[in-house]
């Protein structure tokens, strides 16, 4: 039976956000989107998970979509960590089970960072084309897009339709292996949060703030939960060669390199992503149920992460 997708407002770690939730069974899934994106990127995956009867929650990360803006006085990644940790605890408390976190790009980076915490009810993580490895070509690729540069150089405010059309074209070119075949509804969902050049400048400013934070942002040796790494072999924004760092640090992880797929597999091949999540989640849930609960060492930085 198809589970209905419920959309509502939710407050996590003091952040007001939008949630897309499915009720269902199995280890609950928390779905985290990438930079300048929103929970809408998971709609195709959520539709298929609803038919599978799987419990899942997608949220707008702080500073993106319709969520509360980021605090400029604090680093970006710590704010995302704190928010996502609260989402994990919320979903685990509701379901009574540890959570599988799947994240694309920046969301994958956050999933990897939180997997090093040992006081979270995590069953497993699924980073999908995660940011944070090697040179951050994704941001230079965005800034170099001619259509976006022309938008930002405009001497007067531009109509929303013009801005969204230009952003959509840039999104097609950067995020997909075959830009012209990208689903129109997915492109429209992405651009609904890019209505003006002011929005573009805010997102670009956030990206520039993050760049120094994305230099060695992980403690991979501390990860003890199962990991399924997914990457598209035509990812233009985050090169799949970065997978070598994870394979060296986590030799027991599972790695799926998807042929002829770009930066957003959840949009390009949602049926493949759902199949992998279902297979991996079932096994990870069984492992988590048997594993002893670990306690995280108390550190000064932990206070923010435990909110």
UniProtKB/TrEMBL annotation:
Highest taxon listed in the record's lineage: Bacteria
EC annotation from Swiss-Prot or TrEMBL: 3.7.1.13
MF GO annotations: 2-hydroxy-6-oxo-6-(2'-aminophenyl)hexa-2,4-dienoate hydrolase activity
InterPro entries linked to this entry: AB_hydrolase_1, AB_hydrolase_fold, AB_hydrolase_sf, Epox_hydrolase-like
Enzyme class (EC, first level): hydrolase
Region listing for Disordered, in residue ranges: 288-307
Family annotation (Gene3D superfamilies): alpha/beta hydrolase
Domain AB hydrolase-1: start-end pairs: 29-275
Annotated TM spans: none
Protein name: 2-hydroxy-6-oxo-6-(2'-aminophenyl)hexa-2, 4-dienoic acid hydrolase
């Amino acid at each position: 039976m198809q589970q209905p997708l419920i959309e509502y407002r939710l407050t996590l770690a003091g952040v007001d956000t939008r949630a897309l939730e499915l009720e269902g069974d199995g280890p609950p899934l928390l779905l985290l989107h990438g930079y300048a994106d929103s929970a809408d990127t998971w709609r195709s995956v959520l539709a298929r998970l609803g038919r599978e009867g799987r419990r899942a929650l997608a949220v707008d990360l702080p500073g993106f979509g319709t969520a509360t803006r980021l605090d400029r006085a604090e680093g970006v990644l710590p704010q995302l960590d704190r928010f996502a940790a609260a989402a994990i605890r919320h979903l685990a408390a509701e379901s009574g089970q540890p959570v599988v976190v799947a994240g694309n790009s920046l969301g994958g980076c956050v999933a990897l960072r939180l997997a090093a915490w040992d006081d979270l009810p995590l069953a497993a993580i699924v980073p999908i084309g995660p940011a944070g490895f090697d040179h951050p070509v994704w941001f230079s690729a965005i800034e170099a897009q001619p259509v976006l540069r022309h938008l930002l150089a405009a001497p007067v405010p531009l109509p929303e339709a013009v801005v969204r059309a230009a952003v959509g074209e840039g999104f097609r070119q950067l995020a997909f292996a075959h830009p012209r075949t990208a689903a129109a509804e997915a492109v429209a969902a992405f651009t609904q949060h890019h209505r003006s050049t002011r929005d573009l400048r805010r997102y670009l400013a956030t990206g520039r703030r993050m760049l120094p934070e994305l230099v060695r942002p992980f403690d991979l040796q501390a990860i003890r939960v199962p990991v399924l790494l997914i990457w598209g072999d035509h990812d233009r924004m985050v090169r799949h060669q970065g997978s070598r760092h994870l394979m060296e640090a986590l030799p027991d992880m599972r790695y799926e390199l998807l042929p002829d797929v770009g930066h957003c597999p959840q949009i390009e091949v949602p049926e493949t992503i759902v199949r992998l999540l279902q297979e991996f989640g079932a096994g990870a849930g069984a492992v988590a149920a048997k594993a002893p609960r670990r306690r995280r060492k108390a550190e000064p930085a932990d206070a923010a992460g435990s909110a």
